[in-house]
Amino acid sequence: MRILFATGGTAGHINPALAVASYIRENYDDAQILFIGTADHMEARLVPNAGFDFKTINISGFKRSFSPKAIIHNIKTVIRAITSKAASKKIIKEFKPDVAVGFGGYVSGPVLQAAHDLGVATCIHEQNAYPGVTNKTLAKIADKVMLTVEDAKKHLESKNPVMVTGLPVRGELLNADRDFARTQLGVPDDKPLVLSFGGSLGARPINEAMFDILLDSAENGRYYHIHSVGTNGAEFLDRFAEKGFVDGKKGTVEVRQYIDNMDVCMAAADVVVGRAGASSLSEIEAMGKASILVPSPYVAENHQFHNAMALVNRGAGYILEEKDLTSDALAKKLDELLSNPAILHQVEENAKAMAIIDARERIADVVVSLAKK
Questions:
Q1: Phi/psi at 224 (nearest 5 deg)?
Q2: CA-CA-CA-CA torsion for 182, 187, 193, 198, nearest 10 degrees?
Q3: How many other CB atoms are found less than 10 A from the CB of residue 34?
Q4: What is the pLDDT of residue 71?
Q5: CB atoms inside a 10 Å sphere around CB 71
Q6: Residues 15, 237, 294, 178: what is their CA dihedral angle, to the nearest 10 degrees?
Q7: By the 8 A CB rule, do 327 and 209 touch?
């Protein structure tokens, strides 16, 4: 059984593909797996590190601008789209896959198109509630289309009926225990814990809005709070130090540059504040956490807004758009949730109801069934 995975660009595309590929490798002795990505994005590091064979094609996305620099880039992108499809066909003819799987990102486009042209079975997975351009195109030819959430269905013209599989969530998160996590963090049972972050790099608007909230919380101690400023937010650590924080800590507040024990922190949390990337939301749902989501307005198709609204429309979370984000607005949202245990509990239950904790197995079953046809 030979399986070809095509994905790249961001961890949100790559990690779910690796989770499924790892599951297949562990459970099917006859599985031979090859990944195709680009040489200059994180898949070039993550895929080989996970122990999978990896080949590259030269492909890029279009820039949505009419500046001279963007026009030149887009002309090169058109040329790369043609050459990358030819390169993909060469790899496919050599590897002879039984199925080709696309997990989004523009690298999936030429690979899946080439596989389809060569008569190879194809399937795609869409992480977001608003599909990307590549998957919108591929849905018209794919043998199977898998979605993280039902909401994406209305934005697709699919050749075949779509199926909701969810998005794989790391095992350590699924197995995390709230009481044990709070003991590890030193958070008492009678105090709520807020966890906030803006992604691994950080988000300046969230850091700015959180600054006064964290200072106030450190003084009054109404609740515990763990906040990550991100790898690009070092200046905020200095600002907190100027306000009396020692090694990022003051009172019931801890500020970190990066959260490297997310399974523990999220398990212990009562409210999560952050962006609305598909992976983060799947983790929030799987752990049944109430959330206040600040979608990034800088992503393609504004897909984080649609991701957030999938929760909001089901009473499973709250949204605070970046244009409306202030310390006062965020503090009000937090107070509303933390002062109403019944509402907090209902939001948690609604989030948990959205979770698909066997997403990895569901996706793998689709892939394997196509490969064995």
A1: -80, 155
A2: -70
A3: 21
A4: 54
A5: 12
A6: 60
A7: yes
Nearest to 15 by CA among 281, 358, 279, 231: 279
Residue 53 has pLDDT above 90, yes or no: yes
Q: DSSP class of residue 63? A: P
- Evaluate whether 267 touches 169 at the Cβ level (below 8 Å): no
The amino acid sitting at 370 is: L
Which two tokens mark 362?
């569901």
**Are β-strands 99-102 and 121-126 bridged in parallel, bridged antiparallel, or unpaired?**
parallel
Across 32-46, 205-219, 346-360, least confident range: 32-46
Mention every residue, 6+ apart, whose C-beta is less than 8 A from residue 99.
3, 4, 120, 121, 122, 123, 367, 370, 371
What are the Cα distances from residue 280, in Å, to 266, 313, 337?
10, 18, 20
Q: What is the pTM of this model?
A: 0.89
* pLDDT classification of 106: cutoffs 50, 70, 90: confident
Task: Please report the pLDDT score of residue 42 as a whole number.
Answer: 87
* 282-318 pLDDT tens trace: 999 999 999 999 999 988 789 999 999 999 999 999 9
Q: DSSP per residue over 297-325, as a string?
A: TTSGGGHHHHHHHHHHTTTS-EE--GGG-
- Evaluated on CA atoms 274, 278, 284, 285, the torsion sign reads positive
In degrees and rounded to multiples of 5, residue 80 shows phi and psi of -65, -35
Averaged pLDDT, 246-273: 95
Q: Are strands 99-102 and 2-6 parallel, antiparallel or unpaired?
A: parallel
> Rounded to whole angstroms, how far apart are CA atoms 212 and 338?
18
Tokens of 245: 């924080």
Q: Where are the beta strands (DSSP E) in the chain?
A: 2-6, 32-37, 53-56, 99-102, 121-126, 144-147, 162-164, 193-196, 224-228, 249-250, 253-256, 271-274, 290-293, 318-319
